[in-house]
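Internal QA ticket QA-208
Title: Verify multi-chain structure generation after dependency bump
Assignee: T.L.

Test input:
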Amino acid sequence: MPPIVGLVQAPLFLEHRRDGHPERPERLVAIAAELERTGLSGAFRNLDARPASREELLLAHDAAHLDQVGRLTSGPPVMLDEDTYANEHTWRAAVCAAGGAVDLTAAVLRGELDRGLALVRPPGHHATPSRTMGFCVFNNVAVAARAAQAMAVGGGAPAKPRIAVVDFDVHHGNGTQDIFYDDPSVLFISLHQFPLWPGTGWLTEAGDGAALGLNVNIPLPPGTGDGGLRAAVGRIVLPALRRFAPELLIISGGWDAHWRDPLAQLQYTLSGYAWACRQLVQAADELCGGRVVTVLEGGYDTEVLAVGVANLARALLGRDEQDDPFGTGTAGEADAEAILQRLERAPDGGG
Ligand SMILES: [Zn+2]
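Actual output:
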């Protein structure tokens, strides 16, 4: 039987916009068109995106952050920080992005859905407990993970379910790292270009206290392509997932590590991305009953993003085919071997 995959989409996510900004509604429009064109859109079970409650947002953010965002988004369009904009629709879009991710994750954890895909904006992985950052208002993945854990415990389960978050956006998921840094119930793995904005994500940022070793950064040099991606997933990500043995996998999905993306310098292809997505879905099958939820983060070449998400959708739906109309970039591939060897030698962050 094909897996039941939930999909969160809403017209509301197109209303958050600012002229000329790369994090634009056309990203979601392109994805929706591609899912339609390929006939994939009919294969999902659609879920509404309801607003996350204040209580849910407080699981990942402090009250001052919520109040500050609420104040700033209640007036005319404004910059919340140097990169993150808001208009009159931003508050509603941001709380529904988080709420949609919560409902999807909770439904997968309860077994009502096998897998989930949240196509939401604004993205989340740079939002820290206390501030907006890098186009992100609330950390959708972190709110979803914490809220799903809370619901599971409330249902009489003996302990919080362990959740692994894998972030393959080209930028370091600094906000997610901050939120879970000392939380032993969550494994966070980020593959990203380094150096690159926001400047964090080095090997030695490995978690704290009981969570030491549960924050795994894979800082890849500019120019790293599919060879480095495959090596990083095979030698670092999958072994770390197996050691942790999560009960649910959440993917922070960003397609800005593709060679065509205008914001960074990694050289992945869509074939490389599709391979990585299939590996993660297979890891979920092997480790946690196939329970995997993907939440959209970055990806600023809309054509690449659309096909990349369609390939991910196929992986979630258990289909083998993939599409890569763009092939390989012309730049040579950088060597990530030194970083990978350091991570293999010190999987708990001693590197
Ligand atoms: Zn990014």
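Spot checks passed. The pocket of zinc ion is lined by residues 169-171, 254, 256, 297-298 (CB under 6 Å).
Status: verified.
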